[in-house]
Specification:
This protein is of the alpha/beta class. It has a single domain, classed as TIM Barrel (Alpha-Beta Barrel), CATH 3.20.20. The protein is 34% helix and 19% strand. The structure holds D-xylitol-5-phosphate (DX5) and zinc ion.
């Protein structure tokens, strides 16, 4: 599987969101990572389906929505209607995972499970045949610009073993820079999310190419 680079717009300049999205698209991004936070599952708030729909209207890039919300079941339809292509919610939520994954996939969207740094992957084998990707959090969810948690590399390797020969992608999210990108690439990650490292850089194209080629 080809490595995909997914800039997280959480670190972009919200006042110039359209310009920022067009800039990363032009700079070679493979998809856009959108962090949806509810101020309850995580101690921060971002945006909802209305903004996602507007983002959809200005880009051809696949939209990867990462739901950090307590009640994903209440919002799945709204985000799919807004035009997302990848949709993940957290394994730490009290949710009927399987029925949600089935619903997401039935609507033609890739379904993912997101896992916090302190959560084990013991529940993964039970849902592995229902999903298209696993999102491994390499920082505590809620904020951009945090340091990469090194144990995440071990988690990627263990996840890879559970996936076996299935066509399931592994996405890593949090604290990605050239050094940490190298570590996770060696552990055979498929999707690299990067917020601060791309949006706080002077040259998005150079940074995206650099991440791809570490
Ligand atoms: C954190 C979010 C991440 C965040 C990554 O809760 O899920 O997607 O934007 O930002 P960086 O790359 O700056 O750690
Ligand atoms: Zn995220």
């Amino acid at each position: 599987m080809k490595l995909k680079i997914a800039p997280s717009i959480l670190s972009s300049d919200f006042l110039h969101l359209e310009k920022e999205i067009r800039a990363v698209e032009q700079a070679g991004a493979d998809m856009l990572h959108l962090d949806i936070m509810d101020g309850h599952f995580v101690p921060n708030l971002t945006f909802g389906p209305g903004i996602v729909k507007k983002v959809r209207s200005i880009t051809h890039l696949p939209i990867d929505a990462h739901l950090m919300i307590t009640n994903p079941a209440d919002f799945i339809d709204k985000f799919i209607d807004a035009g997302v292509n990848y949709l993940s919610f957290h394994i730490e939520t009290d949710t009927n995972y399987v029925s949600l994954f089935r619903k997401i996939r039935k609507l033609g969207v890739k379904a993912g499970i997101a896992i916090n740094p302190e959560t084990s992957i013991d529940a993964l084998p039970g849902v592995i045949d229902e999903i298209d990707y696993v999102l491994i959090m390499s920082v505590h969810p809620g904020f951009g610009g945090q340091a990469f948690i090194e144990e995440s590399v071990k988690k990627i390797i263990e996840t890879k073993v559970i996936i076996g020969s299935r066509q399931i992608e592994i996405e890593i999210d949090g604290g990605i820079n050239y050094q940490t990108a190298k570590l996770v690439k060696e552990a055979s990650v498929n999707i690299l999310v990067a917020g601060n490292f791309i949006f706080k850089s002077d040259d998005y194209a150079k940074t995206i190419a650099g991440l791809r080629n570490v």
